[in-house]
Specification:
11 helices, two-stranded antiparallel ribbon, 317 residues
């Protein structure tokens, strides 16, 4: 069984359920590269590339499918449900607290829309879990699984405990028709370029960096917030890696395959400079980042436009 990981763990969870549990076959980019794919906005002082649940719902509504979260009543009920589900149904997305992540545990509670994937029970009677962001596997015992899911986010609905994600898919034939469509790669790229929010992304970036400059001037030091700022920046970079990888899969010539790698590298460089500015508490560094950000957004837009031209030219040869 080959599983898919991505910058958006909710979309990756939905994709793996559709592919593994429902046996559909379609490219992950079909559900990711929507008209709002490149949209950036400020969310509580962090630069975000969109709500993960909204992205997934916008895709699923095309074939009358919805996400829901069954009530497990309590932790013991959830573990029993997981064992039964893995034996009979397939993979099961679960919402976890990264404070108890086995690979890179946070020093604080971090449980907001972090989904991993229960895959199976091992011979040692442990739960095998797939990290939907990093793409690696790890095992936990029942006691550790309980720590992962017994977290505030999973009690967000009054008097319910909802650690698992499920799909309600009522019309298999409709879903098969939508997911089985022949989607032209150039058309998909042209669609996201047409809706690229150039001015909006520039405006949001200015607001973002102004807010961070004000934060530095305030003299406050909120390490939790700074970690979140950099985590969100990593997600933005990962979303651009998806485009780069998609272009590699097009296999339409060296220029188009490598052009977007420069954009990914520039987003990485921006994040590194931002981390340094936050560490130094430097308003001068923050001011320099404004110009870097504006150049980066223009580079991203121009590169996407140029890549489409290259892919179109390669198709005519």
């Amino acid at each position: 069984m080959t599983l898919t990981h991505a910058y958006n763990c909710v979309s990756a969870a939905v994709y793996n359920m559709l592919v593994v549990n429902y046996k559909f076959r379609f490219p992950f980019e079909l559900m990711s590269m929507s008209s709002s794919f490149f949209e950036l906005f400020v969310d509580k002082g962090r630069l975000s590339c969109g709500s993960p649940i909204h992205r997934a719902n916008d895709f699923l509504v095309q074939f009358g499918t919805r996400i829901y979260y069954p009530d497990m009543l309590d932790v013991n009920g959830a573990i029993a449900y997981a064992q039964h589900y893995l034996d009979r149904r397939g993979v099961l997305p679960l919402s976890i607290n990264l404070k108890y992540d086995t690979a890179s545990p946070k020093t604080f509670d971090d449980d907001h829309w972090h989904f991993h994937l229960l895959v199976r029970k091992s011979e040692q009677n442990k739960f095998m879990i797939f990290n939907l962001f990093n793409g690696d596997y790890y095992e936990v015992c029942e006691a550790h699984l309980a720590k992962l899911i017994d977290t505030a986010f999973n009690y967000r609905y009054a008097q319910q405990f909802t650690p698992f994600m499920q799909l309600e898919l009522e019309n298999y034939e409709l879903a098969q028709a939508v997911l089985g469509r022949d989607n032209d790669r150039v058309d998909m790229l042209r669609h996201v370029l047409k809706h690229y929010p150039l001015e909006s992304n520039l405006d949001e970036g200015r607001d973002y960096l102004q807010a961070l400059t004000a934060y530095i001037h305030s003299g406050e030091r909120q390490l939790h917030y700074e970690h979140q700022v950099l985590d969100y920046q990593r997600i933005v970079t990962r979303s651009r890696e998806l485009v780069r990888n998609y272009l590699w899969s097009c296999d339409e010539g060296e220029s188009s395959n490598t052009a977007f790698q420069t954009v990914v590298q520039e987003w990485d460089a921006f994040r590194n400079k931002l981390a340094m500015a936050l560490m130094r508490r430097s308003s001068t560094d923050m001011a320099a980042l404004q110009g870097h950000y504006e150049q980066l957004i223009q580079l991203e837009y121009n590169t996407l436009s140029n890549v489409i031209t290259l892919v179109e030219a390669a198709k005519t040869r």
